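Open question from group meeting: does this chain pack into something compact, or does most of it stay loose? Before anyone orders reagents, we agreed to write out a predicted structure and look at it together. Recording both the input and the output here so the notebook holds the full record.
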Amino acid sequence: MARPIRTFLDSGVLIAAYKGSPSIEAPANNILDDPNRVFLSSPSVRHEVSPKALYSRQLDEYRFYQKYFRRAAFCDDLKSIYTNSTARGRDGKRLA
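Structure tokens returned:
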């Protein structure tokens, strides 16, 4: 069995999956529905989407994001995220 694809989605993909145009929404949801993926996220992504949905009283949108965040593994060590956020190839070696 192949290893799952570790996928870190930015807030734009989550927003597109919920309320993008059909040409954008479908591919974004295909990624979210892919059983061969393990999703990763961070507090930054949660902070980008959740407060606005709540402020705008878009409860279905907020629930959509929360469902995703319950599924995702969180990278909570922000110092480590920022320190290690250089581009890397599939082999893990730095590209730059």
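Observations to bring back to the group:
The chain has one domain: 5-83.
Residues 5 and 12 are 19 Å apart (CA to CA).
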